[in-house]
Amino acid sequence: MTKECIKTACPYCGVGCGVEVNQLGIVGDKQHPANHGSLCVKGSALAESLAMPARLLYPKLHGEEISWEQATDAIAQAYHQAIEKHGSDSTAMYVSGQLLTEDYYVANKFMKGFVGSANIDTNSRLCMSSAVVAHNRAFGEDIVPVNYDDLDHAELIIICGANTAWTHPVLFRRLQQARERNPELKLVVIDPRETVTAQQADLHLPIPNDGDVMLFNGLLRYCIDTNTIDEEYIAQHTHGSESLFEELNSPQYSLDTLAQSLQLTTEQLRLFFHWFSVSKRAITLFCQGVNQSESGSDKGNAIINAHLATGKIGYEGAGPFSITGQPNAMGGREVGGLANQLAIHRGFDQDSINRVSEFWQTPRLATQPGYKALEMFEAVDRGDIKVIWIMATNPVVSLPDNHFIKQALKKCPFVIVSDVTPDADIAQYADLLLPAAGWGEKQGMVTNSERMMTRQRQFIKPKGEIKPDWRAISEVGAKLCQRLGLKNRFEFANEADVFREYAAMTGLNAGSTLLLDLSQYSNISDEEYQNWQPTRWGGDRPLADGQFSFPDRKARFVVPQMSDVPESRGWWLNSGRQRDQWHTMTRTGHIAHLAATEPEPTVTMNTRSAAYIGVKPGQLVVMSNQATSKKVLAKAMMDDGLGDKQLYMSMHWAGQYGMGNEVNAAISRQQDPFSGQPAFKSQRVEVSNAGAKAYAMCIGENALFSSGEQFEHSLWPYQSFQSEGSMAIWRLAGFCLLNKQTSLLTQKALGQRQLTLELSNGWLTVGYEEVAETRIIRSIFITSSEPIVSDASELAKLVGRSLTFSSLLAIASQEQAVELICSCFRVNSNQIIRELEKGACQTLEQLQGKLKCGTNCGSCIPQIQRLVDDHATVITLSK
Ligand SMILES: Nc1nc2c(c(=O)[nH]1)N[C@H]1C(S)=C(S)[C@@H](COP(=O)(O)OP(=O)(O)OC[C@H]3O[C@@H](n4cnc5c(=O)[nH]c(N)nc54)[C@H](O)[C@@H]3O)O[C@H]1N2
Ligand SMILES: Nc1nc2c(c(=O)[nH]1)N[C@H]1C(S)=C(S)[C@@H](COP(=O)(O)OP(=O)(O)OC[C@H]3O[C@@H](n4cnc5c(=O)[nH]c(N)nc54)[C@H](O)[C@@H]3O)O[C@H]1N2
Ligand code: SF4
Ligand SMILES: [Mo]
């Protein structure tokens, strides 16, 4: 790390906080307009995130290290051969909202411009695509009309389908500060779950899943009925109100009927509707509870409809506010990374095709939309895609029905994966694995939720042969151009060069009704790019003049197609985020204090639901979904913020941490028909007590178990892993009755030598030792027929009764520094402790009798007595 002060941006959520790297470490940037110096728990742990357990440093073809020259040759050849034999559409690229704008621009240019296929899609399909559809349908362009400052000016803030306190924490803190300054400011949270965010609201509306369209339709109907719509705004700036209003003139939107459908009281509804109708300045913030649904696009439009009809848009403190998930989800949309967009907010109309072809100087431009994410992997499965390049995303975990995705990829003739770590699950599916430069090692631009463009800057010297993604694509692009007999259009000197070309390209929008135009930056120097200060494009409020991006400059009301509340679905699985983890854990799973909050794969349900299936906290449950025909094992935990028969599981469990217990195994490929965004939040599943007969926990030195499966799967089908610095905790559960036999089997699987074994009160406690090289490392293995409470603090208490985690660590270190106690008879501390822990000796006299220690000069007797005091009791744990 550097000694100077370098300003960059946090690589996690779409709040887009500014970060400063200085002598103090990695801290919040006080000057950054998004966060004014604040960071959340993940942002504060950025320095620790850099110490990844494993890094990819060299390109590898089928596991063999190769040079970049060979790697880029192989990729260019694979794409070229597929194009020649099967056509451009037999190739694909699947990228990510975590790429920087420059990476994204080059990727899009490579696929749509020169490979000649729009089969480039991104994980933003899973994240923002419903909001994109809603914006395009209403505004004529994918535009977010508000900014963070607006929160300070609002009278009413509605958070719909977002757990902002956990997922956009710095923004939520800002909102709370606004409430402290202005006690009149009201907060309404719409979420089927009573989340931490909902608990802090003035009004929480726990609507049934996917009741959002009906709720916002009802809100608009109320505004029509109470004459609180803005007829002038509607007349001057919109189209389509008649058919929408007619649709809403249905008895199902009368207050009482609506309340019944939404399982709310009439008073709750009336209060919300009243607050909205009388608040001139109202903001509706929305995220995945809206987007990730079969009616995601319609939900977005129902929200926007209510704002347009009441004119609550385009001025300070008002408007619909789609919050982005990833750091550059917005930048990717601007560049055109989605398969159904061409570039720079343009689609595949002839005018756009002509302009873009000319700008890129290519005869090969894709002329029609490509496969959306799920369609893309379905095409892979059918064998239609012969080569796919996956970059900065972990689709075998994060896509729904992830076992299907795994199977599909296994069939694909050539899979290229660019990642920073070989631990990412997707790395196992790569024929060719490329080492990408990660956060701190690369640089470029990101755009946050409020259109603020911030520079990520490099502050770490690149290791090995890592390369920024844009450069890897450019090198392949150059070779592909050559093979196609075209002039090389990928001659970029540096990131600034890429950015200038992208900015110049947005100049194609000048003179059109589209608002995205960064052409004023097309000539910035390298130095200006380097010194870039956070800048919001489109001004503070791009729709302030009521001029929208359709040719007639009017906004559109959209009649939602899917307004019905889905009927009761039996058990219903909802999934999303946990406060302290980032996505598939490749960057946060190893940080002990982040891992402690949810230490193992957990399904939450309310106490009534748990009683219904006879499940106690900590017991193993099994979830299955007919549509995927796969099962997920996880530990049950109680959350009375959930309704009856509602389940919630976080999306994070993956890789070595989740050990196969990914929620997406129980999530089907149901999706929104307009956006193709998966319905991650509403799945009909079956759940039951898995009937585990044995639970176990193993605490040991990390290095002992650094690779591969450590515990026999047949004995312990449920396994998870938690990192605790150099120590680690494994949690296991299985269906074999617990006895000494089982324990011995596990012992064999561990390849360890047994030290002590004690069966008491349903608990079996085993201490092991293992000789690794010259050191002796200890691990403790505890099994029980009852669940071992999985909360880390509970765990600490439990273990702490006779052996705290720190004393465990102390034992581990003692083992490494074996102390000679009795010089006369050469007896060391280990031998003494072993006798004590085995239970063979419990007193000084017994030890003297057995080992002879302290029977000669006696100077070591106090030390032996201390060991007796510390270790004489065999570890027994009561429930
Ligand atoms: N800690 C953390 N923060 C993150 C991330 C992370 O991995 N970890 N990832 C970032 C990314 S990429 C994203 S996209 C965002 C996501 O940010 P959010 O959308 O805020 O987070 P989620 O937990 O996915 O889901 C939000 C809420 O939607 C609710 N919900 C489910 N169904 C419905 C419904 O039908 N209607 C309504 N109104 N609500 C419903 C869920 O109960 C859940 O509480 O978070 C970003 N921030
Ligand atoms: N069940 C369920 N599933 C979900 C969701 C949900 O709510 N529920 N949410 C969805 C949403 S909104 C999202 S955004 C996705 C996120 O899902 P993913 O995008 O699959 O998750 P990540 O773990 O962020 O994957 C990023 C990968 O890129 C690697 N990486 C990091 N930096 C770089 C880089 O600079 N270059 C390259 N080449 N690689 C890099 C990381 O090591 C990691 O493997 O998950 C989706 N899946
Ligand atoms: S709020 Fe988001 S951008 Fe800000 S520090 Fe936290 S994760 Fe990073
Ligand atoms: Mo996301």
What does this structure look like?
- With 879 residues, the protein is α/β, with parallel strands linked by helices.
- It has 6 domains: 6-50, no CATH class; 60-123 and 329-524, Rossmann fold (3-Layer(aba) Sandwich), CATH 3.40.50; 128-322, 3-Layer(aba) Sandwich (Dimethylsulfoxide Reductase, domain 2), CATH 3.40.228.10; 601-689, Beta Barrel (Barwin-like endoglucanases), CATH 2.40.40; 694-813, no CATH class; 821-873, Orthogonal Bundle (Arc Repressor Mutant, subunit A).
- Strands 5-4-16-15-14-6-7 form a 7-stranded mixed sheet, with helices on both faces. A 7-stranded mixed sheet has the order 26-21-25-22-24-23-27. Strands 29-30-28-33-32-31 form a 6-stranded antiparallel sheet, sandwiched between helices.
- Helix 4 (101-115) runs parallel beside helix 21 (469-483), helix 12 crosses helix 13 and helix 30 (829-838) packs parallel to helix 32 (861-871).
- It is globular, with a radius of gyration of 30 Å.
- Residues 752-762, 768-778, 790-817 and 874-879 have low confidence and may be disordered.
- Molybdenum atom binds at residues 127, 325-326.
